[in-house]
Design goal:
By secondary structure, the protein is of the alpha/beta class. The protein has a domain of about 260 residues: Rossmann fold (3-Layer(aba) Sandwich), CATH 3.40.50.720. About 45% of the residues lie in helices and about 15% in strands. It is built from 12 helices and 13 strands. Helix 2 runs parallel beside helix 3, helix 4 packs parallel to helix 6 and helix 10 crosses helix 12.
Amino acid sequence: MYKRQKENIICLKDDVERKDQKQNMLNKNVDLNGKTILITGAAGFIGANLSRVLLTMFEDIKIIGIDSLNDYYDVSLKEHRLEQISQEPKASAAEFIFLKGNLADKGFIDQIFEEYKPEVVVNLAAQAGVRYSITNPDVYMESNVIGFYNLLEACRHSYDNGKKGVEHLVYASSSSVYGSNKKIPYSTEDKVDNPVSLYAATKKSNELFAHAYAKLYDIPSTGLRFFTVYGPAGRPDMAYFGFTNKLVNNETIKIFNYGNCKRDFTYIDDIVKGIVEVMQRSPLSNEDGVRYKVYNIGNNQPENLLDFVDILQEELKAANVLPKDYDFEQHKELVGMQPGDVEVTYADVKELEEDFGFKPSTSLQEGLRRFAQWYREYYD
C-alpha cells in the first residue's frame, strides 16, 4: 500500500514538473508556413538535413539554400545531400531553390536579400574543423568572420524604408567557444574568453557580432552552440567518419590523449529538431532590451573516446562494413593530445529544455548504428 502511494506521489510530481515546464516554455512567435527561409551551408551536413525536414513539415515554405560547394572534403558527398533534398517528399507548395555562391561575396548576399527577401535566416555556413584552422587561418577569417558580417549587414538593411525584414536570425556557434574551461557541464552562463583555436575564436566573434547587431539594429538573434554532431552523410573529417574510412582501408586509427577524452556526441536528428524549435521562437527582449539568446544543443551525456570507438567498430561489424573477425586492437594507436583540442565537452541543456521542452535523446549506439548502415549503403 505504502509503495503504491509512493509511486503515485512520484508520478504526480513528474506530471506537475512537466506542466510547470510547459507553462515556462516560450510561445511560438514565428510561423514558418508560407515563409521564405534563407539557409546558408545548405549542402553541408546540418544545412541539408534541416532543409529536408523543413520542406516536409511546413506548407508553402520557400527555402533559399546557398553553399559554395568548396573542396574542404569530398564535393560528391555535398552533391549527394542536395540530391536527397530534391527527392524528399514535400509539404504542399514547399519549394527549395539552390544557389551556389560564397558568403564572403557581399554582392551575392545582397542580391539574394533583394530578390527573395528572406524572413528567417539560418546561418550554417562556416569553415569547420579545429585542427585545420591552425594551418589554414585565412579561410576561417573569410567564411566565418567576413561572411557572417555580410549576412548581418544584409539582415540590418532588410528593415530599410519601414520594411518588415528578417523576423529571426539563427546561427551556428560551437561548443569550442568554451575552450579549456574546467567547470562542467558547460553552461551558457560560463565565461568564454579563452579560445584554444582560431576556429573557436571565430565562433565567439560571431556571438559578439550578433549581439552588437541585435542591440543596435534590433535583429532578433539566437546562437546555437552545437556539441560534436554526428550521423549519416556527415563530415568525413569528423572522428567517427575518418576512423571508419581508415578501418575499412586496413589502416591504423590514432586515438588522442591516450583515449582520455570525453565528447558530448549529438545525433544529427536531435540537432535539426532543436533548430526547428528555435526557429519558431525568436528571443524576447532581455534585461538590457536586446532580443538575443544563446543555447547549448548537446546530448548532455559525454562519452569516453575509447568506449565510442568500441561501439563504432561493433556497429560497423554488425552492418557488414567490417568483417566479423576484424582485429580492431591491431588497428588502434593511443597518442598524445593535439593542439587546439580539449579533454571534455559536456553540454548543460537546462535552458534549452525549459524554453523549448526539448533535449537531445538519441543514444550513441543507436546513432552509430544508423551511420554504419548508411555507410554500407552509400559506399557499396
